[in-house]
Amino acid sequence: MNILAIDTATPALIVGVVCDGATRSETVLNDSRAHNELLVPATLRMLNDAHLTFSDLDAIVVGVGPGPFTGLRVGMATAAAFGDARHIPVYGVPTHDAIAHNLGDPDNLLVATDARRKEVYWSSYHGGQRVAGPEVCQPARLGEPTPESDYRLDRVDVMSVPAKLAPMLPAVLQETTVVSGVPLPADLVAVADFTGKPEPLQPLYLRRPDAKEPTKKAPSPAIVRKES
Fold this sequence. Notes:
Elements: E1 2-7, E2 13-19, E3 22-29, H1 35-49, E4 59-63, H2 69-86, E5 90-93, H3 95-102, E6 108-116, E7 119-126, E8 129-137, E9 158-160, E10 177-179, H4 185-190
Parallel strand pairs: 1-4, 4-5, 6-9, 9-10
Antiparallel strand pairs: 1-2, 2-3, 6-7, 7-8
C-alpha cells in the first residue's frame, strides 16, 4: 500500500511516502511558515524520491491538528484535492497522536504544540492512549482544570513541547524530561485507521481564526448623498 502522508499543523511542513509500512521518502521543513508555497513542490519531490507518481498512491493521510487555521487549511485542502483528483481515500489523524507514536508512547506523556498568541495546544497520554485533550491554554496553566474538562495532570514522565515555550510552563512541569516529538510520515500512517471508509476531514482548530471580518463603519458626515 503506497500512502502519501502530510502534516501542516505545526510550524514544520512534513511530507513523505510510506509503502507497506516502510518510509520511502520524507522531508521535514522546520519553521517554514510558508506551507502554501512549499507543500505541492515538496510532495512532488517526495514522490520522485520514492520513484512513484500520483497514480501509484492508494491513500493519503493528513494531520488534522490541533493547529492554527491557515496551516491546517493548507494541508487538509491540498490532501483532499489530491484524493479527489485520484479518487483515493483521505484519512485524517490527530497530529498529537502521531507525535505520541513518534515518542514510543511512554506511560505518562504530555504533547504540547505552539498555538501562537502565547498559548499551547496540548494532549495527555497514558499507556499509549489519549486520556485528555486536545485543548488550548496558556503554558503556565497546563494541567489546570478547564471549563471543558476537570482533568488534572497528576504525573508526567515525558513531555514534548517547543523549546521557546518550555520556560513558561508551571513549576510542577519544570523538572519533567523534555523531548522533541515530530509527526513523521510513518507516525501519521501508524495512527490512521484503514479498516473502514474514512470519516470526513474535520480540522481541530480549537478556537476561532485570527483573521476577522472588518466591522462596518458609519459613512463619514462629509459625504454628501444625492437625493433619489
